[in-house]
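Weekly modeling sync, notes
Attendees: AB, CL, MP (scribe)

Item 1: holo prediction request
CL wants a bound-state model with magnesium ion before deciding which constructs to order. AB pointed out that an apo prediction alone won't tell us much about the pocket. Agreed to run with the ligand included and paste results into these notes for async review.

Input as submitted:
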Amino acid sequence: MSEDARLRDAGEKAAILAEALPYIREFAGRTIVIKYGGHAMEDPALADLFAQDVVLMRLVGMNPVVVHGGGPQISELMRRLGKEPEFVDGLRVTDAETVDIVRMALVGKVNREVVGSVNRHGSYAVGLSGEDAGLITVEPRDPRLGFVGNVVEIAPAILERIIREELIPVVATVGVDNDGQAYNVNADAVAGAIALALGAEKLVYLTDVTGIYADFGDEGSLIPQTDAEGLEQLLESGKVGEGMIPKVQSCLDALRGGVHRAHVLDGRIPHALLLEFFTREGIGTMVEQ
Ligand code: ADP
Ligand code: MG
């Protein structure tokens, strides 16, 4: 590279860093809840970039909170243990044995992996499940599903304490009912409820599609920006399918409850979080109150 080209290249890099300054100022001290998708986290190289981004967010003074799913990992462990996964309306039928497997996969494996990958870049991640310190209380969703819960209450105190210590909570979405029975809970719903309970500034869903489509299957129907009203109409249109429904629903609840902004981002894009938070680049779908 010529000296001129090298300087130009360096100048561009400096400009990108300078562009981040107003965003760093805006979000310092703000809580950002990130739902890390079961599919978006399967690629180890992307998982490492995700971990870097979350640590960087913490280091510039933001308060990231990670909530993860793990549907594919639960199914894989079930098969290894000789149990065939079964679904009703897209929801996993969860008998007593399955709830044990859910715990092993989400708390014992996926949570440890996310915590481990974050801590390779800076020792800030603290893993916990909804069973810890009363974090997630649930009630049964449908008797046909067994131990699948709907969130009835989030007790955010444990998260607030971890955040106050400038650490990064990483939440596995197992909840408990009033009798202490464990349940599997949809991670999108938990992320929305936690964002609401913490009064988060932003709620981000990292998933495996470009964003929310008005008509899934029609590439031209990607929605770059919308609001709560728009999401409501979208749900009523019936064009939102399995997988996206709990995101749109919990996003709507969070926005109505005071969370300022939500994003559905493509977790397959390297550094999706950095692009969203620190550059003018708009990616995925942004939803404002
Ligand atoms: P995650 O692990 O991120 O929760 P899911 O598979 O549960 O992943 O949800 C994302 C999926 O939702 C997409 O891969 C896509 O197949 C599906 N989907 C259904 N309707 C829509 C829509 N209208 N816009 C975008 N994705 C949709
Ligand atoms: Mg999902």
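Recorded for review: The mean pLDDT is 95.
Action items: CL to compare against the apo run; MP to circulate these notes.
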